[in-house]
Amino acid sequence: MPVLLATALSSCVLVLAAAPSPQEGTEGVPVRSEHVEAEADPRTNRAESTAPRVGQDQAPAPEPANTNTPPPPTEPAPAEDAPEKATVVRGARPAQTASEVTLGRDILDAAPRRNAVDLLRAVPGLVASQHSGEGKAQQLFLRGFDALHGQDVELDVGGLPVNEVSHIHALGYADINFVIPEVVQSLEVTEGSYRASQGDFAVAGTVRMELGVAEPGVHLLGTVGQYGQRRLVATVRPGEDAGTFAAVELGEGRGFGAQRGYGRASLLAQATTSLGNGVTVRALGGSYVTRFDSPGVVREDDLLAGREDFFSAALGRQGGSVSRHQLLLGVELPRTGNGRTKLEVFGVLSDLRLRNNFTGFRVDVRGDGLEQTNNGTTLGARAEHRRSVNILGRPVALELGLGARSDSVEQTQRRYRESDGTFFSDEIDAKFTQTDVWGWAEARLPLGRWSFRLGGRADALGVEVFDALAFRDPRHYDGQGYARSAFGVHLGTKAGLEYAMGDTADAWRLFASYGDGFRSPQARGLSEGERAPFVSIRSAEVGSRKDGERWALQLSLFGSQVDNDFFFDHTVGTTVYTGETLRSGVSAALQARPLPGLVASVSATLAHAYVRSSDTLLPYFAPFVARADVGWDGQPGWSWLGASTTLSLGTGLTFIGPRPLPFDERSATVFLADAHVAVRRGELGLRLEVSNLLDARWRDGEFVYSSRFDPSAPASLVPARHFTAGSPRMASLSLEVHL
Which family does it belong to (predicted)? Predict the structure, then answer.
């Protein structure tokens, strides 16, 4: 089925495109797309209403719209000396595929969100596993892909890229622990790789976090909880613009078991202002630092024999430290006619030191522990231009983009003794510079109830590597390492088709989409003069959606094909090339606001992933994922609480079906329930949050491989089950002050 799906759609929709539905407003949510022009609806020949609809989430309380850019005209002026007045609609761009979704702050507030990983769990079909401590990047699963720590999911925070190229620990390593959840106003999710703007690592999809603070003034939040949880958050929003703010977070805890302590500090600040004459600038900056411990894994047979308990730590010395410093500067230029241009430059400094030992003493009696370091500097720039043109008397909306990103990285990998932590072997000592230069274009053409989209993207990748340990022979080492360079180009097509089944804005719409995605290679694995071997992914999707005032429903059938895929087992550090892999599945998502103050987001994804040559399942992917976020916020009407008192209730439910593991094993089913209750009167608020309400004994990560944690035991290569424990029931109490 996946082969037929990909083949049929790629041939049928290669030259078709899906244009957006009439514009939907989202008051109170600062969005990446800034302002959106109110285009005439080709089906009704009139401008669409500005009333927000459930398909494009809005904040629970109306806020002044983000004013990062001057209001655009709705149509080109007929003559330069007689400009027409514009009708402005502010909000996110309407969906152009069946599975695009925007999760607003009201949905994010429906369930407890203690950290960045809790935000990601709201994304339909996405599993985020935090199995190695509070400071390490989460392992992600989406649409049949085990994205490891980010290699198949593109993450973006306010325009800043998160994925790190050729990372020492995992390709596309994406650590979002620096994000303060209180300043994320929305998640813009594009599943699949069907849009031309999606870049490196946008294989299973793209998640963009838009930043802003809901209320003006000063907000202080202090939290205490079980297992030594302590957290302090302060946000400042000086004016009416939700996108201008500063926020700081301090947190620490000893964790729910051995080797789970952590401490972190994060600062995020953003400002937008108009310089006059139609020029608007934006600045986003932040700093983050953390130190954390990691428990490692527990062998299942040790647990059953009583040698270890469920929350044991296999070995000490595991954990690490991270720092990240980042800055983005952007400018939106004066509008000319009906076009607009945005320029951005950004820089990121990142540093990671990580110690892991997942196999104990299997390889060496001194210990198998690895210390990895990755110090990176990222510099980049991008330009985007949008405008409408007439071609053969038909309006065509164009989007164009150019960009470049250069990463300079130093990385090492050493083995250390478990007895005293000293090093006894150097395995990697490398420096590299990886530069990606890209351009993309996309056009959409409405024809009555039909809309067509066609786009393309080109990425040129150049890599220079210096490996200090290459060809090193301990018997006679008199060299100085080995240098090499490589270059390659990836070309991709994006296309889609949309059909509206009615003339109203809330009519059902049918979609077909196709896209070529890619992920860049591991720099150290390239040889001299090699054409940089991008991993290319072809994906297709058919589906439908209905966006109404109170209800939004999405249904999609998807499939993808990877020519020369590989499976990286980060527990033992081995890469296995599997050849061609195929993935297919179906997903459904519902967002509803049936009553005032009540919001619900429910989704389910069923996926299948296998190696075509052997017809075997890929390990670790998530075949079935379901998520429900339900919350209510309003005035209870109880006189003893006072007329100005508001009450909030919410829950988040997660179900993850058994995942395939190596050697025909299966993981256990996971069901988790989180809940919160909050009350606010005037400037003061009190919030009680409970995660894992049912106190389930669940395994956050499960693996199958050989290990030996007792150095006196005989060595064995027999595979065994291992797991990292998920958190038990944890309660916290927060006091909020709004000034």
Answer: Belongs to the TonB-dependent receptor family.
